[in-house]
Structure to design on (270 residues):
Protein backbone atom coordinates (compact mmCIF):
# COMPACT_ATOMS: atom_id res chain seq x y z
CA UNK A 1 0.00 0.00 0.00
CA UNK A 2 2.89 2.35 0.78
CA UNK A 3 4.43 1.61 -2.62
CA UNK A 4 1.13 2.25 -4.39
CA UNK A 5 0.74 5.52 -2.51
CA UNK A 6 4.23 6.63 -3.57
CA UNK A 7 3.47 5.87 -7.22
CA UNK A 8 0.07 7.55 -7.09
CA UNK A 9 1.41 10.65 -5.34
CA UNK A 10 2.57 13.72 -7.19
CA UNK A 11 5.99 12.91 -8.56
CA UNK A 12 9.32 14.65 -8.94
CA UNK A 13 9.33 17.15 -11.79
CA UNK A 14 11.63 16.42 -14.71
CA UNK A 15 13.13 19.89 -14.27
CA UNK A 16 14.48 18.77 -10.89
CA UNK A 17 16.16 15.76 -12.47
CA UNK A 18 17.53 17.94 -15.26
CA UNK A 19 19.08 20.31 -12.73
CA UNK A 20 20.73 17.34 -10.99
CA UNK A 21 23.10 16.89 -13.96
CA UNK A 22 22.97 13.10 -14.09
CA UNK A 23 24.52 12.93 -17.55
CA UNK A 24 27.57 14.81 -16.35
CA UNK A 25 27.73 13.28 -12.87
CA UNK A 26 27.41 9.57 -13.64
CA UNK A 27 29.89 7.40 -15.58
CA UNK A 28 29.15 6.62 -19.21
CA UNK A 29 28.86 2.90 -19.93
CA UNK A 30 30.18 0.99 -22.91
CA UNK A 31 27.54 -0.73 -25.00
CA UNK A 32 27.58 -4.53 -25.14
CA UNK A 33 28.69 -6.03 -28.45
CA UNK A 34 26.95 -9.39 -28.07
CA UNK A 35 23.25 -10.30 -28.00
CA UNK A 36 21.15 -8.47 -25.42
CA UNK A 37 17.96 -9.77 -23.80
CA UNK A 38 15.62 -7.08 -22.48
CA UNK A 39 13.02 -8.14 -19.91
CA UNK A 40 9.80 -6.24 -19.18
CA UNK A 41 7.03 -6.76 -16.67
CA UNK A 42 4.48 -5.12 -19.00
CA UNK A 43 4.42 -4.08 -22.65
CA UNK A 44 6.07 -0.60 -22.69
CA UNK A 45 8.50 -1.05 -19.75
CA UNK A 46 11.36 -2.03 -22.05
CA UNK A 47 10.85 1.01 -24.27
CA UNK A 48 10.39 3.43 -21.37
CA UNK A 49 13.56 2.33 -19.61
CA UNK A 50 15.85 1.13 -22.39
CA UNK A 51 14.27 1.88 -25.78
CA UNK A 52 16.80 4.44 -26.93
CA UNK A 53 19.68 2.11 -26.17
CA UNK A 54 17.85 -0.72 -27.92
CA UNK A 55 17.67 1.49 -31.01
CA UNK A 56 21.38 2.28 -30.69
CA UNK A 57 22.27 -1.40 -30.39
CA UNK A 58 20.13 -2.32 -33.38
CA UNK A 59 21.77 0.41 -35.43
CA UNK A 60 25.12 -1.18 -34.58
CA UNK A 61 23.89 -4.61 -35.69
CA UNK A 62 23.64 -6.06 -32.17
CA UNK A 63 20.89 -8.64 -31.63
CA UNK A 64 18.19 -7.48 -29.20
CA UNK A 65 15.64 -9.96 -27.86
CA UNK A 66 12.68 -9.07 -25.65
CA UNK A 67 10.74 -10.96 -22.99
CA UNK A 68 7.42 -9.56 -21.79
CA UNK A 69 6.29 -11.34 -18.64
CA UNK A 70 2.67 -10.11 -18.50
CA UNK A 71 0.34 -8.63 -21.10
CA UNK A 72 -0.50 -5.63 -18.91
CA UNK A 73 -4.16 -6.57 -18.97
CA UNK A 74 -4.87 -4.97 -15.57
CA UNK A 75 -3.65 -1.46 -16.40
CA UNK A 76 -7.19 -0.11 -16.67
CA UNK A 77 -8.40 -1.45 -13.33
CA UNK A 78 -11.36 -3.73 -12.70
CA UNK A 79 -12.85 -5.09 -15.90
CA UNK A 80 -14.57 -8.17 -17.27
CA UNK A 81 -12.54 -11.11 -18.46
CA UNK A 82 -13.33 -10.28 -22.08
CA UNK A 83 -12.27 -6.64 -21.63
CA UNK A 84 -9.00 -7.71 -20.06
CA UNK A 85 -8.36 -10.16 -22.90
CA UNK A 86 -9.05 -7.41 -25.42
CA UNK A 87 -6.66 -5.05 -23.66
CA UNK A 88 -4.00 -7.78 -23.50
CA UNK A 89 -4.23 -8.31 -27.25
CA UNK A 90 -4.08 -4.58 -27.87
CA UNK A 91 -1.01 -4.16 -25.71
CA UNK A 92 0.78 -7.02 -27.46
CA UNK A 93 0.12 -5.33 -30.80
CA UNK A 94 1.33 -2.00 -29.40
CA UNK A 95 4.57 -3.60 -28.30
CA UNK A 96 5.15 -5.17 -31.70
CA UNK A 97 4.58 -1.81 -33.37
CA UNK A 98 6.87 -0.05 -30.87
CA UNK A 99 9.70 -2.53 -31.41
CA UNK A 100 9.35 -2.05 -35.17
CA UNK A 101 9.90 1.67 -34.62
CA UNK A 102 13.13 0.93 -32.74
CA UNK A 103 14.65 -1.37 -35.30
CA UNK A 104 12.54 -1.58 -38.43
CA UNK A 105 14.34 -2.28 -41.67
CA UNK A 106 14.31 0.82 -43.90
CA UNK A 107 13.93 0.73 -47.66
CA UNK A 108 17.33 -0.17 -49.11
CA UNK A 109 17.32 2.91 -51.33
CA UNK A 110 17.00 5.10 -48.23
CA UNK A 111 20.13 3.76 -46.55
CA UNK A 112 23.13 5.99 -47.22
CA UNK A 113 26.60 4.64 -47.88
CA UNK A 114 28.08 4.29 -44.38
CA UNK A 115 31.52 5.25 -45.71
CA UNK A 116 30.12 8.61 -46.78
CA UNK A 117 28.56 9.38 -43.40
CA UNK A 118 30.88 10.94 -40.84
CA UNK A 119 28.43 10.53 -37.94
CA UNK A 120 27.66 6.85 -37.39
CA UNK A 121 24.49 7.79 -35.49
CA UNK A 122 23.10 9.24 -38.74
CA UNK A 123 22.99 5.80 -40.35
CA UNK A 124 19.47 4.41 -39.88
CA UNK A 125 18.98 1.12 -38.06
CA UNK A 126 18.94 -1.93 -40.29
CA UNK A 127 18.32 -4.64 -37.69
CA UNK A 128 14.87 -5.65 -36.53
CA UNK A 129 13.79 -6.91 -33.11
CA UNK A 130 12.56 -10.50 -33.26
CA UNK A 131 9.03 -11.31 -32.15
CA UNK A 132 8.78 -10.72 -28.39
CA UNK A 133 8.51 -13.72 -26.10
CA UNK A 134 5.20 -13.29 -24.27
CA UNK A 135 5.09 -15.25 -21.02
CA UNK A 136 1.42 -14.32 -20.35
CA UNK A 137 1.81 -14.39 -16.57
CA UNK A 138 -0.88 -12.57 -14.55
CA UNK A 139 -0.60 -8.79 -14.44
CA UNK A 140 -0.30 -7.35 -10.89
CA UNK A 141 0.46 -10.87 -9.59
CA UNK A 142 3.95 -11.42 -10.94
CA UNK A 143 5.51 -11.77 -7.50
CA UNK A 144 3.66 -15.09 -7.17
CA UNK A 145 5.18 -16.33 -10.43
CA UNK A 146 8.83 -15.41 -10.10
CA UNK A 147 10.06 -18.97 -10.60
CA UNK A 148 8.06 -19.32 -13.82
CA UNK A 149 9.31 -15.92 -14.96
CA UNK A 150 12.92 -16.85 -14.25
CA UNK A 151 12.50 -20.06 -16.24
CA UNK A 152 11.19 -18.16 -19.27
CA UNK A 153 13.97 -15.57 -19.03
CA UNK A 154 16.63 -18.26 -18.65
CA UNK A 155 15.39 -20.04 -21.75
CA UNK A 156 15.61 -16.88 -23.85
CA UNK A 157 19.07 -16.03 -22.48
CA UNK A 158 20.34 -19.50 -23.43
CA UNK A 159 18.73 -19.47 -26.88
CA UNK A 160 20.09 -16.01 -27.67
CA UNK A 161 23.57 -16.64 -26.31
CA UNK A 162 23.10 -13.39 -24.43
CA UNK A 163 26.00 -11.18 -23.38
CA UNK A 164 23.86 -8.98 -21.12
CA UNK A 165 20.44 -9.27 -19.48
CA UNK A 166 18.56 -6.00 -19.01
CA UNK A 167 15.54 -5.94 -16.67
CA UNK A 168 13.41 -3.66 -14.49
CA UNK A 169 15.06 -2.50 -11.28
CA UNK A 170 14.17 -4.80 -8.37
CA UNK A 171 13.52 -1.81 -6.10
CA UNK A 172 11.29 0.23 -8.44
CA UNK A 173 8.36 0.03 -5.91
CA UNK A 174 5.95 -1.37 -8.51
CA UNK A 175 5.50 -4.99 -7.41
CA UNK A 176 5.53 -6.40 -10.95
CA UNK A 177 8.68 -4.47 -11.85
CA UNK A 178 10.40 -5.69 -8.71
CA UNK A 179 9.35 -9.29 -9.37
CA UNK A 180 10.62 -9.04 -12.96
CA UNK A 181 13.94 -7.72 -11.70
CA UNK A 182 14.28 -10.49 -9.15
CA UNK A 183 13.36 -13.10 -11.76
CA UNK A 184 16.10 -11.83 -14.07
CA UNK A 185 18.63 -11.96 -11.24
CA UNK A 186 17.50 -15.50 -10.42
CA UNK A 187 17.86 -16.54 -14.07
CA UNK A 188 21.44 -15.22 -14.14
CA UNK A 189 22.43 -16.59 -10.74
CA UNK A 190 25.42 -18.89 -10.94
CA UNK A 191 26.47 -17.47 -14.33
CA UNK A 192 28.85 -14.70 -15.31
CA UNK A 193 26.11 -12.92 -17.24
CA UNK A 194 25.80 -9.28 -16.10
CA UNK A 195 22.38 -7.86 -15.28
CA UNK A 196 21.66 -4.21 -16.02
CA UNK A 197 18.58 -2.81 -14.29
CA UNK A 198 16.52 0.06 -15.64
CA UNK A 199 14.26 2.16 -13.39
CA UNK A 200 10.79 3.21 -14.51
CA UNK A 201 8.78 4.56 -11.59
CA UNK A 202 11.90 5.54 -9.65
CA UNK A 203 12.00 8.81 -11.56
CA UNK A 204 8.52 9.54 -10.19
CA UNK A 205 8.95 8.79 -6.48
CA UNK A 206 12.67 9.37 -5.91
CA UNK A 207 14.64 12.63 -5.69
CA UNK A 208 18.14 13.40 -6.98
CA UNK A 209 19.64 12.97 -3.49
CA UNK A 210 17.50 9.95 -2.56
CA UNK A 211 19.45 7.52 -0.38
CA UNK A 212 17.23 4.63 -1.54
CA UNK A 213 18.84 4.80 -4.98
CA UNK A 214 22.30 3.15 -5.35
CA UNK A 215 23.81 6.04 -7.28
CA UNK A 216 27.29 4.50 -6.97
CA UNK A 217 26.10 1.63 -9.19
CA UNK A 218 24.40 3.83 -11.80
CA UNK A 219 25.72 4.59 -15.27
CA UNK A 220 24.39 6.52 -18.24
CA UNK A 221 23.95 5.62 -21.88
CA UNK A 222 23.84 8.76 -24.07
CA UNK A 223 21.42 8.69 -27.00
CA UNK A 224 21.96 10.14 -30.44
CA UNK A 225 19.23 12.32 -31.92
CA UNK A 226 18.31 9.43 -34.22
CA UNK A 227 18.01 6.92 -31.36
CA UNK A 228 15.95 9.32 -29.25
CA UNK A 229 13.68 9.96 -32.22
CA UNK A 230 13.09 6.25 -32.63
CA UNK A 231 12.35 5.91 -28.93
CA UNK A 232 9.79 8.73 -29.05
CA UNK A 233 8.12 7.13 -32.08
CA UNK A 234 8.03 3.80 -30.23
CA UNK A 235 6.51 5.35 -27.11
CA UNK A 236 3.78 6.94 -29.22
CA UNK A 237 2.65 3.45 -30.19
CA UNK A 238 1.42 2.74 -26.66
CA UNK A 239 -1.87 4.56 -27.12
CA UNK A 240 -3.65 2.48 -24.47
CA UNK A 241 -1.29 3.92 -21.86
CA UNK A 242 -1.25 7.48 -23.20
CA UNK A 243 -5.01 8.00 -23.52
CA UNK A 244 -7.40 8.63 -20.60
CA UNK A 245 -8.67 5.33 -19.22
CA UNK A 246 -12.15 6.65 -18.52
CA UNK A 247 -14.22 9.75 -17.75
CA UNK A 248 -12.49 10.24 -14.39
CA UNK A 249 -9.28 8.26 -14.96
CA UNK A 250 -6.29 9.84 -16.61
CA UNK A 251 -3.70 7.96 -18.65
CA UNK A 252 -1.31 5.50 -17.08
CA UNK A 253 1.54 7.54 -18.56
CA UNK A 254 0.77 11.27 -18.44
CA UNK A 255 3.05 13.77 -20.14
CA UNK A 256 5.02 14.46 -16.96
CA UNK A 257 5.98 10.77 -16.74
CA UNK A 258 6.89 10.51 -20.41
CA UNK A 259 9.24 13.46 -19.86
CA UNK A 260 11.39 11.30 -17.57
CA UNK A 261 11.85 8.79 -20.38
CA UNK A 262 12.59 11.09 -23.30
CA UNK A 263 15.89 12.48 -22.10
CA UNK A 264 18.98 12.41 -24.29
CA UNK A 265 20.32 9.52 -22.19
CA UNK A 266 19.17 6.45 -20.28
CA UNK A 267 20.27 5.27 -16.87
CA UNK A 268 20.93 1.72 -15.70
CA UNK A 269 21.95 0.25 -12.36
CA UNK A 270 24.62 -2.47 -12.41
Amino acid sequence: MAAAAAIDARGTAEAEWRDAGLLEGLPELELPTGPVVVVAAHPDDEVLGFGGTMATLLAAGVEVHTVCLTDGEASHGAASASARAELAARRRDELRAALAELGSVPDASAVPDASAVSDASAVPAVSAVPEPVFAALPDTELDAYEYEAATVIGGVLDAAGAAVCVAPWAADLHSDHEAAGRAALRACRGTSLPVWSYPVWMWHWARPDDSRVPWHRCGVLPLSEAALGRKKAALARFASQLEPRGPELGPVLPAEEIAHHTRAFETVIR
In short: The first strand starts at residue 36 and ends at 40. The beta strands are 36-40, 64-70, 133-137, 164-168, 195-198, 218-222, 265-269. The CA atoms of residues 69 and 135 lie 5 Å apart.
